[in-house]
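From the shared-data thread, chain only:
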Amino acid sequence: MNTTLARISIAQTNPVVGGLAANAQAIIAAINQARRLSSDLIVFPQLALSGAPLRDHLRKSSFFAALHTELQNIIQACQGITAIVGLPCADESRIYNCAALIHDAQLVDIICKQTVSDRPYFHESAYFTAAEAAQPTFYKIGELSIAVVLGEDLGHHLYRGNHSTSVAHVLSTDPHLVVNMVAHPYTPSGVEIRQRYLKEISLRNGCAIAEVNLVGAQDEIVFEGGSQIYSSEGQLLHRAPTFETALITYDLLREQTVPHFRDYKPTYGVNYSSLVLPILSQEIKAPLAVIPPYEDPDPREKTIQAIVLGLRDYMAKNGFKDVVLGISGGLDSALVAALAVRALGAEHVHGVAMPSCYNASISLEDAEKLCANLGIDLRVISIEKPRQVFDELLAETFAGCRPDTTEENLQARIRANILMALSNKFGWIVLCTGNKSETACGYSTMYGDGAGGIAPIKDVYKTEAFELCRWINRDGEVIPERIITRPPSAELRPDQKDADSLPDYAVLDGILQLYLEQMLTPEQIIEQGYEEAAVRRVVRLVRINEFKRKQGPLGLRLSTTLFGCDYDMPITDRFAD
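Structure, as tokens:
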């Protein structure tokens, strides 16, 4: 007896929003590869044809016309195979998040998502309509029975116990396989949460689950991939890598889809519409090579991979090749330089050291050593003359005023002008090197070191930046050790240290994580053992610097509280925590 129920391919694709023709060609290439492997079914992620997030493209009729054209090309490419492709669809007044079921070059059904996501970075509720729970359709491809689910539908209708929807009704018919098409961005614990979630669902419902996820970056969102297949007994059968495109193919065996416990029973009075499709691949399939499921690397390496993919995709998808950044001899610029080299190659990364009379000589030494280690060019452009010119220019106006942060900020803005001049002249994108701790507290200069085209570590706390630097150095010194061990300083006045303006970073980051990530009140944070004065000070800094964050560069989302994407407060705000 043949123990193979069906051969399934999962295509983890990296679409570009608006790049419909290229997205369609990537889908067709995966379909052709799956057909060569004699797959019966190939599944793509949610919104694989269009890319995501789509935002106001969804308001354009021309966008849907172009989608329709590319969908027709995909349909024609599906001879001899069944494919499920994610895309948006629209009627006269509503827009739906959908999946197209294509069988042997025929569009046989459109499945609409029944849950509108509340995730802020997708803005899904502003565009998509939740589909009404229509008469559930039961799909069979040969002997394989499947349920097709999009994104949060699986959690809302199954995991959260809502039995009244068509998804739950279809699941009560004992499908062999649940196909879950998702678009999950990266977060540090995202894969672990998804694994626990899918394992529990497969066990509770006695069916195999194939989850297929987008990969790649779109603006600040980094989709991590990591698509996976679970047996009906909660065993991880296969998992794709994170942060890279992949096609994984697996023979789903009969013993891997035997229900052993039912959490859902057929609902009285529900009528099912069955859609039975003939199996198209009749030849005897050659056994597939056994590939163990992909295992995650160290969490620090995963964070680096997410940043590298985010920066690489931002550059490539927007038609840029080179970046430029200020190399101060400090930790943050060293980290960003190292990440940029990994993302783009040393030949596409340009460093600029811009010393003044306040910079220690060892800062330039460390900057030169860092750039030599990374293999990037370093320009040294002193800002001492323009700094003096500004002092002279403003001397009469500032007469009687003591020097303060005004003069410090002028230095940062002179440096930003130099970087922007190089950007204009050579077409390089300026990288902002600010971290999350500084961004939260406004410890940067507007139109100075807070300027740039993209901020790769905007969602990385300072203490995490130290950890990432040490991880990069694990096999040998890339970032000079003195950069990591020296007390952090902006070097904008004599003997300046970050600790003069901010609490110790271990204390600061502890408070920020409780306030931003866990949304605790100051009183609750104080109960965790932090000094009241420090807590009140940090919370005040976060509140009063929202105006500065609103004018900052795009960052890469690495947590659930990226400023502007997730954490978005009004500037004019009288509510005191």
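The longest strand covers residues 4-12.
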